[in-house]
Amino acid sequence: xxxxxxxxxxxxxxxxxxxxxxxxxxxxxxxxxxxxxxxxxxxxxxxxxxxxxxxxxxxxxxxxxxxxxxxxxxxxxxxxxxxxxxxxxxxxxxxxxxxxxxxxxxxxxxxxxxxxxxxxxxxxxxxxxxxxxxxxxxxxxxxxxxxxxxxxxxxxxxxxxxxxxxxxxxxxxxxxxxxxxxxxxxxxxxxxxxxxxxxxxxxxxxxxxxxxxxxxxxxxxxxxxxxxxxxxxxxxxxxxxxxxxxxxxxxxxxxxxxxxxxxxxxxxxxxxxxxxxxxxxxxxxxxxxxxxxxxxxxxxxxxxxxxxxxxxxxxxxxxxxxxxxxxxxxxxxxxxxxxxxxxxxxxxxxxxxxxxxxxxxxxxxxxxxxxxxxxxxxxxxxxxxxxxxxxxxxxxxxxxxxxxxxxxxxxxxxxxxxxxxxxxxxxxxxxxxxxxxxxxxxxxxxxxxxxxxxxxxxxxxxxxxxxxxxxxxxxxxxxxxxxxxxxxxxxxxxxxxxxxxxxxxxxxxxxxxxxxxxxxxxxxxxxxxxxxxxxxxxxxxxxxxxxxxxxxxxxxxxxxxxxxxxxxxxx
Length: 571
Description:
Shape: elongated
Largest sheet: 3 strands, antiparallel
Helix content: 40-55%
Number of strands: 15
Structural class: mainly alpha
Strand order of the largest sheet: 1-3-4
Strand content: 5-15%
């Protein structure tokens, strides 16, 4: 035969050094350049399709089964890549991710009539799994042809890719990477198809993990060779250079040149490499920060759940031990009655305000009929701020002293001769308006400071469930988003709600909760007793010696474990 061996055999048997690799790549590039000048895409450049002639030891490209004519955009003729392929040498734009069962069914229906069993097996979707669960499936953007050899496009869940020089350029980058490192760019079979869905996922998501690319390209020791590969393996097809420019100007193909022009090209190359390294480093740093932030958020979430579980357990356990009565513990006390629940129209107006200020620094005028809802948000902020100011003054000591400090701290919030206690639905976060509720507290209002620590517990729980919105909803705010302008000054005031135990601000209560003390004079015990006694006298059911009414709230959960929730949503 005219050829003695293919490039795969040459590479593994002769193990060429970089100078020999340079000669190999130049000859392959020149062959591909000739095809492109003839407006042909090879479509399947790989070691097995590169042969060496016996006569002059020159290389040639073979197997044009996957080739397609390169037609300029806007031309009448259609020519697509992917009729034949080796998926591991294809660029990212040739890979389709199938996320839905509908897309999968559409794809399978398209190929159902194909009679070539080998082709059907080759195009079969490859599942991508994480922790044993299929997250997606990947396929090559391939297609069938009709009896006249024209592509059948109807019924595909993707658009076909036009034949292009850029597809060959990527394949040349894959080839160069393997020749220079001795490794496969993508895990692949002997036929250079992706070995699995995970391998196709690498291709599909190419460039989205900069730190991975950085480590990958570091395997190429020679700077000029690394720059060549990095230019060819760019995710954006438009950024891949032409073969002509690489052959004429790239330092990798001209190591012997020392003229001013080549020195300029080398400077450009070094600047490019430095820029890529800096970009990759910057992206990797940003990714590191994002991952750190995600870990912080996850940690906060996990800690929040743990703290809320512990808090609920301790508080309910204390109630059960002290009284044997099962009672809700999330409530607010206001010096005014809340208006009726907002209409859907007003909720929409509030959400329209949120939408209007999203993405801009423009303040939005407040319609008169929404003022009462802004007042509700401000009420929540006021109580939060008061927790902050009282926190700095309360120190471990006797129960009476702690309550006197609290009384002094909230005296301006206890105005008039009447206040109103609303129970909170712990699933929806909404205050309950029902027959007999809210409970009216008439003067003297001495009980309010004694209930204040327990009110903070509920505020903390609602804050952790839904942030500042959860806090606002406790005070009657009807929407699930709050205009940013309404929350001005809220950040600092709610920080206390994040602290280690639900009542850390009141260190007397905090110390007792942490120790689980049963001392008769603990603030915790006193607050709970005051609250239970108050409900016994004021709840429409309990005051008549019957089962608690609790504004219609019902208890769900396990009382033995202290994980109760009180809600109207019994379904």
